[in-house]
Amino acid sequence: MKNIILHFIFFSIFVACYSCDDGRIYPKEVVLPQEGLSVKLSGHLKGLASWPENYTVCIAGFSDESDYAILSKVIAPGSSADVEVILSGIKEEVTQLELCVTNRLRKRVVTFAKMTTESLQASAQTTLFDVGMLDVGLFTTLQREVFNTSCVACHGANGRAARDLFLTEGASYQALVGQPSKVNKEMLLVAPGEASASMLPQVLSKEGLVQHSHTDLLDAKKKTLLLTLINDWIDAGASE
Known about the structure:
Helix content is 24%, strand content 24%. The protein is an alpha+beta fold. It has 2 domains: 37-135, Sandwich (Immunoglobulin-like); 139-235, no CATH class. The chain has a 4-stranded antiparallel β-sheet, with no helix packed on it. It has a 3-stranded mixed β-sheet with strand order 4-1-7, with no helix packed on it. Strand 5 (96-103) and strand 6 form a beta hairpin. Helix 2 packs across helix 5.
């Protein structure tokens, strides 16, 4: 009886060992190489955390035919000022790489720096995209994309400003945020947290509010995106 029990134990051990080890080594994780080229964005970026959650600061690849990113890599709002981000899998349909902001639909809102992909085709190595020192903050973006482009000609560029409203760099924030409108004294030019109660977006989107029309000041191709951006900035608290 004792011999039978010992044979049974040895047989069980043999079966267990055979079933657990068939001679092959199984990796814990299979990592497949990503096709396409790679770019490493490097730079000192200020203002990353100023964007509302429905916007993304990123490095993105675009084709010539669309404003929607084909691929992108997010630069986290909590990143330090010195940023290094690698975008891989860049294929032939991508013709331009950008440090930019996209919305929830991955549509380009504003571009801070860009490079074509022509220089990537000669080498399979990771290419450096150095953008230097840039302020990518939301209000700085509005200053550049809206006030500098469409407003300062009448509001401060020559040392004079219509209705004494200076929208030049360094003066625009204090002139707008929390300041009463001279057209409608019941409203503020920018009421933090309340875009619907702010005069600025209304003047840029509605006729008849002021003596001279402002509805055509914004670039027609960007108008909807920029008006949405202004409203989102105000609703998020209108921070500088």
